[in-house]
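Hey,
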Amino acid sequence: MLPGILGRKVGMTHIFNDAGKMVPVTVVEAGPVYVTQIKTEDKDKYSAIQVGYDEGKEKNLTFPKFGHLKKAGVGKNLRTLKEFRVDATDGFELGQEIAVDIFADGEEVTVTGMSKGRGFAGGVKRYHFKGQHMTHGYMTHRRPLSSGATGPQRVFKGVKKPGHMGDAQVTQKGLKVVRVDAERNLLLIDGSLPGPNGALVIVNKVTK
């Protein structure tokens, strides 16, 4: 069984559980994905299943990707490819369709995605610095002050300064699948997920 799946974040809503409590959930349109390559220990030195997702137009594919999909016999113009490590490749075949029903209600998952880009931001917004008083007499307010020691006469790497905020890979752990809608290829996951609506996310099973 594939340990994860690709999907797109649809948006947030809420449902009521059996106890009548409202649960905020994020709806993910997960799969179906198609097996585009099978990697084995003998040939590739590790076992993995490469799957493709998000069908698009043929003109938007690069020539190498088009040839790769044609060789796999998928028959679809898949724009996103992703590998999942597996213990064994038995039971997988090229072109095989894998749907969202590999997950079950109540299953623990980990979700990876790209956070929303916030552009250039100062220290107060980017790192939640307290800032100075906003009254008369203070000239700094939200401005960054000391950059560290003056002995080395340089700023050490990693000092929190203004810069590009967001648009970074974020992995959220400890999430739970509240409901699986196999007919519509939907996963309802409790809480919020990284990225804007329509963003690509990777949902992985948690192996203990």
